[in-house]
């Protein structure tokens, strides 16, 4: 296979234009079809963006992968663009602003620090559900959002003004992944190289774990941490091991009543059951053709929930149809089809490429499902919600209260996952229509919300006649953003708050989102069930999690007639008819353009100096201390105290919460002491531009159990030398002042959840040099390395609980920077307080030579700064 990749580029003559392309079939012949489509896209990227021996070795390694379905070889991937949202872009851009300062102070040109490829930023993660069940909720929530976040939004606009290639999509334009589907993605694009036009795949990385939603229309993209994105923004490729690829063979058709959500939850459970962790997933087989692009995107969206980097569906007629339905130009549709067919990216129902591992999913066998109450992979038949909650054995302090003991506190149609496919919203609207006709109302204690991913949803729901039906049962649109899914659910209703304070209820959230970790959607809720939007409305009407909606009356009419699920559930024919009646291609660009003209956004005052003018009084934006030329490596040989000892499934929400800042927390005290209003502190995510707040927020979670100090208050740990229990950031500071190192121990799947880089930045600010865990989720592992923190995998079966760490025990680590290599063994010694010593061989969770180099330099930011100086020296 060597030297074949050196062939001259192919030529595609199309619609009167001539393009060059990497002609994969011409170079590799029939063997190309043995590769998964995702590897074909990576192969094209390698050939186009590398040269010489690097290219030859990488191409050979891709085809060598076919022998075993796995490889340790590294390849360089250069995406065409970067996608971010406001609460991941803010810390990244704050880092860049800080790096500009560091360059200027060292005598270099700060304006040389500019992204080298297009960066799209969606302002979607800050919209809170303060107003709901009101027709003007959209306008009121948007006005409050801009007021609360004006300083941060002004900073984002500054960045787009002074940095090349940065484009901001204002509040109200929708959720980033829906925007990507409806507006940004081209599937195939063109670029100019040496004066010649090339046609290439549309590829991206995104600083959100649900970036793979775009895989549903044949675009390869995945989520990375903000730190990894920074390296790509400044010209470095993403270095990666050639991925293992799990093939999911689909057969059959979904049965009537079953929706895309049910399939996505089933796939999540099936893939987590086989231990997927960072692999690419590709869907193939005859069942793929039975799914619309909208349905595919729901399944692809949940890739991080099933542990994968991607959930890829190849390009086919459904892709072309989706592009047509969302208003893309006809010329683009023709080019996508011509290029995909020419370069073997087009879906072939009978082809079965080589995969690392395969599973089969028969669509005929999928039933109606939910997942919960605490993890997305915990799949349940939809009729098991009541029994699952009952099995928890909750006993109220006072019997006979005004609320059921397991009331539905939040019923949210939320998140890009299940609001980007018009069919899912139409199904919910039809349930609302039937409920309205029967005179049903949602009980007063249920907080309802509808937060679509796109402003076009209002148009097609109104045209289908469903917007008033949704409003009638309490599901008015509250805005176009992540809302409840990301924890911006706003306050619970007064009846729920009162009953919670009395200890009389254990409330439940039902939502159409993708995550239900305890405290995820609201700090006071630890029970959450994922389900389709239509089922969210059904459970909201019931108002009580102990109502089995499959067999019990959901409500009674005013005449006392029981209303069952069958009385409300729409047929597939009715859903299809509603979509046909509502959706118009022109709505998508038009609604987006109207939202982008948001006058509140454009009225913000924006500085235009090349260096950002930090305000010492700001509690939203502070120059980060790690954006410095003084930061160095944390590798070496050292002895450390454990700062925290944790168990399994520690999520990034545990490590760096995103939801509301509790008014009674020491984080709130810090902000109030600097002039903020205790009754309007916003959410943790809104403070990601202020390192002082986020350091204090690290590990502030009611549901986090620290085995080192299991009875410690929220956000506190043990300072071993003194025996004091104190806030984690204070304990860390005392260790630092004494010249002591600290480490953290955890169990399986450490860092599961979102891509937030503050989950790693917070640990760096606490002085954590190494995290020892049984396993790491992919993005968080990368973020740790990006902050210069060494991730180490404990030997199989060696849990933190089994290690039985006691106060006074120390961890000795020998991580010589010169000897560190990907996946190398690292000697660890557990020195007990009584003097006994236990030796352990851990494995460095380092995948590439670039990651090794980042750890040697102290992380991404020192790496970028030194490269920027080197570039200026050369010029």
Description:
The longest helix has 26 residues, at 137-162. Strand 5, helix 5 (137-162) and strand 6 form a beta-alpha-beta unit. The strands form ten sheets. The chain has a seven-stranded mixed β-barrel with strand order 24-27-28-29-32-31-30. The relative contact order is 0.11. It has 31 helices and 32 strands. It is of the alpha/beta class and 875 residues long.
At a glance:
The chain has 875 residues and is of the alpha/beta class. The protein has 31 helices and 32 strands.
**Average pLDDT taken over every residue:** 95
Catalogue the unreliable spans: 1-5
Major sheet details: 7 strands, mixed, barrel
Beginning-to-end CA distance, first to last residue: 39 Å
Notable characteristics:
875 residues, alpha/beta, seven-stranded mixed β-barrel, 18% strand, disordered N terminus
Write the layout of secondary structure elements.
Elements: E1 10-14, E2 17-21, H1 24-28, H2 37-49, H3 52-68, E3 74-77, E4 81-85, H4 86-105, E5 119-122, H5 137-162, E6 166-169, H6 176-184, E7 188-193, E8 196-201, E9 203-206, E10 220-223, H7 226-233, E11 238-241, E12 245-251, H8 260-273, E13 280-284, H9 293-301, E14 310-312, H10 317-325, H11 330-342, E15 357-362, E16 369-371, E17 379-381, H12 385-390, E18 408-413, H13 416-419, H14 422-437, E19 447-450, H15 456-463, H16 467-472, H17 494-502, E20 508-511, E21 528-530, H18 533-542, E22 555-556, E23 562-563, H19 565-568, H20 572-582, H21 587-596, H22 599-602, E24 636-645, H23 652-655, H24 666-672, H25 691-697, E25 716-719, E26 724-727, H26 728-737, E27 741-746, H27 758-765, E28 768-773, H28 778-786, E29 790-793, H29 800-803, E30 810-815, E31 825-831, E32 837-844, H30 849-857, H31 860-874
Parallel strand pairs: 4-5, 4-9, 5-6, 9-10, 12-13, 12-15, 13-14, 18-19, 18-20, 20-21, 24-27, 27-28, 28-29
Antiparallel strand pairs: 1-2, 3-11, 7-8, 16-17, 22-23, 24-30, 25-26, 29-32, 30-31, 31-32
Helix pairs in contact: 2-3, 4-5, 4-7, 4-31, 7-31, 8-9, 10-11, 14-18, 14-20, 15-20, 25-27, 27-28
